[in-house]
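Duplicate of #3305? Posting structure anyway:
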């Protein structure tokens, strides 16, 4: 493994980073206290497509409220994680400020998936597969919400644990993101079996909204690493 833990722990983290973590803990507490049953059902729906279909059909008000808080937690956890691993690249956070970096990446994460949802809706209208699009958008956010709950406890303790644990957390969160993405792809196949979607439409969806963003992300990471080196 690359020894990145020292770089992370040696970074001078302002007290405001702790405030972001407190905000995340508050979101976790709200969902666990007021929407614990909804959260439990959401966890089950990740692995049970019938459960996901039931939740999608019901769309209870409490589910929508839990989804709102959980999606904010996902964006916040992602923003904190990305900002804290800047030392991995021997770099400073954006604009030299962890606060601005966390706010930027948290907002960018939320905006990214919002734009993606809008494009899915547009494709659904164009190809007359609105139900497929709605199901996918629901499941996309469902996976994000659960991913946020899984990674946040580890992200929150990154600045405060031992060096070796910090190193494992960095790689572990990456693995969680990869597994969540693979589960999301598997869910697309499950949705196709229940919807009238042609193979050509599915390939178009997959290339335009799943594979292309991954390639762009990989290219951005490559450019960033080359510019730093």
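Output from current build:
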């Amino acid at each position: 493994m690359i020894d990145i833990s020292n770089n992370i722990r040696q970074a001078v983290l302002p007290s405001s980073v702790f405030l972001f973590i407190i905000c995340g803990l508050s979101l976790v507490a709200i969902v666990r206290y007021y929407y614990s049953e909804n959260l439990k059902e959401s966890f089950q729906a990740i692995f049970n497509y019938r459960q996901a279909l039931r939740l999608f059909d019901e769309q209870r008000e409490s589910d929508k409220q839990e989804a709102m808080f959980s999606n904010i937690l996902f964006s916040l956890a992602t923003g904190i994680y990305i900002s804290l691993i800047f030392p991995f690249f021997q770099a400073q956070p954006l604009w030299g400020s962890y606060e601005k970096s966390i706010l930027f990446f948290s907002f960018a994460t939320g905006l990214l998936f919002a734009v993606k949802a809008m494009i899915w809706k547009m494709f659904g209208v164009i190809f007359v597969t609105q139900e497929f699009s709605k199901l996918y958008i629901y499941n996309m956010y469902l996976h994000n919400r659960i991913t946020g709950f899984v990674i946040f406890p580890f992200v929150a303790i990154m600045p405060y644990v031992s060096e070796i644990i910090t190193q494992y957390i960095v790689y572990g969160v990456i693995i969680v993101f990869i597994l969540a993405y693979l589960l999301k792809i598997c869910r697309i196949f499950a949705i196709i079996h229940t919807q009238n979607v042609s193979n050509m439409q599915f390939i178009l969806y997959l290339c335009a909204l799943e594979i292309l963003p991954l390639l762009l992300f990989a290219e951005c990471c490559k450019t960033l690493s080359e510019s730093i080196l």
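Confirmed duplicate; merging threads. The chain has a mean pLDDT of 82. The radius of gyration is 19 Å.
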